[in-house]
Amino acid sequence: MSTVLSVRGLSVRFGGLMALDGVDFGVEEGTITSLIGPNGAGKTTLFNAVSGFVPASGAIELSGRDLTCLAPHARSRAGVVRTFQNLEIFANMSCLENVMTGAGRLSGYGVLAALFKTPRFWREERAAVARAEEALAFVGLAEHAATPAGDLAFGNQRLLELARALAARPTLLLLDETAAGLNMRETKALGGLITRIRDELGISVALVEHDMDLVMGISDHITVLTFGQVLARGRPREIQQNPEVIRAYLGEDE
Amino acid sequence: MAAFRRDLFSVLVFALVLLAAPLALTNDYYVSVLILCCLNAMVAVGLNLLLGYAGQISLGHAAFYGLAAYASGILSATCGLPIWLAALVAVTFVGLVAWLLGIPTFKLSGHYLAMATLGFGLIVSIVMNEAVELTGGPSGMVGIPRFALPGLSFAADLSYYRLLVIVLAAIVGISLNLIHSRIGRALRAVHGSERAAEAMGIDIGRTKRFVFVLSALFAAVAGVLYAHYLEFVAPSSFGFLYSVELIVMVVLGGLASVWGAVAGAFFLTVLPEFLRAFEDIEVLLFGAILVAGMMFLPSGLAGGARRLLGLLQPKRGRT
């Protein structure tokens, strides 16, 4: 099994605060790897650093390719696609158009092709529509293709963001608290969906999540962060029984 | 494919209707108003790509318009270049200026683009007024030749109008083609959420620069055609007020709608001509109509038309 994402010695500093301090983190191919830890541990910061939204020092490699010098959009084009903790859908576009934006990662026709409607334009547009419809169907939003994204219910907006990322056919999918704000039934369905992303689409997933039932239920590996450092890593069962993790979550004195 | 056919069809119908309009409006005055409508619509369509689709505000589009008008005027009248070459150089020059202006500006976000374009507009305005030897100063520049292409003359206003309709139809067609492509989706994505756009692999800096230059180019084309129509340019036509008027056209017409921008430009160009009959309260009525438009048509003329169609459709279904 090969490593898809390899992060070594990652540090992020916000003024005087070390948000991440020499963190190593990896995602193996075809696995779901969760990142957990108390609030402020640096989980989202790690995602932001990997996707290029905050400057960081250290090594970030995607399947052996160095990402550290790439801008966020170039990292996405390289295959790291993420979702956001605070929904970032394009409310001004229909659901299909939202997802087609993700599918656009795979098309490369330029302005002239769009102006003169070259065969390449039609071919890539058709492929983008097909990928977008497929992704919408995968998350169960097929019937909402024409709905303005801003009109969707909150839970469906979460799914739309997921579909948009899937349509980009990423090598690595970063899910930042996708279950936040979902009810129990929706969270359970989301768990099944993420498992299917790994098993049916073969996409490696990294997950930041607070819902422990979800994390323990679907993760292959778990990394625990506290105060910007790795506290533990292992399989769900090992993490659940790790006394240091329990202390970090429940406080110093039992 | 369906969207493309619909766009092509609507552009053709639009061009044919405009070309046929002088048959009903035979008066020279009507033709001159229609010419101004077309010129404003060209700028408004370009500005709408920037403002309506990509969500970037420019308060300097009058300057692009004026810069191209002056450049083409000076090159043809003062330097004696053939008109088509002067026009080409002027448009390219404005595109280059916009590109250079975009490099530092799009490193900033939010209201800085508004500030930068506002400053740019003021600087251009000052240059037009002060570089008297080149521009003729505040009293303007005369003696600009009427636009002509090798073998084609547009001396009559009616033939000039036909030329403008074709150029406007081309600009609308280009815009529609871009909007219904991944480039159009990228523009709207940048408007919707810059972070998400980046996460989807869109180079937002490049996208913004592209649309900024394109909209400046459309304004430049209109500016060149303006100068070679009136055969006279003066700085007062290209001031800050005109930039604001253009924004009002786009907003009143409907943000993120190519046809809305066209409708807004035509509406706001024709309206003052109608209101002239009311003399004393002309400005008052103008303001009242704008306020009413914003109150009752929050998504502009285009949004209003869509709503009207939506109201008609279910009724048709029932009968």
Query: How many H/I helical runs of chain A?
Result: 10
What is the 3D shape of chain B?
A: globular
Largest sheet: number of strands, sense, barrel closure of chain A: 6 strands, mixed
**CA-to-CA gap between the ends of chain B?**
31 Å
Indicate the overall shape of chain A.
Answer: globular
Number of domains of chain A: 2
Beta-strand percent range of chain B: under 5%
Overview of this protein structure:
The complex is a heterodimer of chains A (254) and B (319). Helix content of chain A is 41%, strand content 24%. Chain A is an alpha/beta fold and 254 residues long. Chain A has two domains: 1-79 and 170-254, P-loop containing nucleotide triphosphate hydrolases (Rossmann fold, 3-Layer(aba) Sandwich); 89-167, no CATH class. In chain A, the strands form two sheets. In chain A, strands 6-7-8-3-9-10 form a six-stranded mixed β-sheet, with helices on both faces. In chain A, strands 2-1-4-5 form a four-stranded antiparallel β-sheet, covered by helices on one side. In chain A, helix 3 packs across helix 5 and helix 5 (119-139) crosses helix 6 (154-167). Chain A is globular. The mean pLDDT of chain A is 91. Chain B contains 14 helices and four strands. The model of chain B has no long low-confidence stretch (mean pLDDT 90).
Task: Give the helices and strands, then pairings.
The complex is a heterodimer of chains A (254) and B (319).
Chain A: E1 3-14, E2 17-28, E3 32-36, H1 43-51, E4 57-62, E5 65-66, H2 72-78, E6 80-82, H3 95-103, H4 111-116, H5 119-139, H6 154-167, E7 172-176, H7 184-199, E8 204-208, H8 212-218, E9 221-226, E10 229-234, H9 236-241, H10 243-250
Parallel strand pairs in A: 3-8, 3-9, 6-7, 7-8
Antiparallel strand pairs in A: 1-2, 1-4, 4-5, 9-10
Helix pairs in contact in A: 3-5, 3-6, 5-6
Chain B: H1 2-24, H2 28-53, H3 61-78, H4 83-105, H5 112-130, H6 132-135, E1 141-142, E2 148-149, E3 152-153, H7 157-179, H8 182-192, H9 194-199, H10 204-230, E4 232-233, H11 240-253, H12 258-275, H13 282-296, H14 300-318
Antiparallel strand pairs in B: 1-4, 2-3
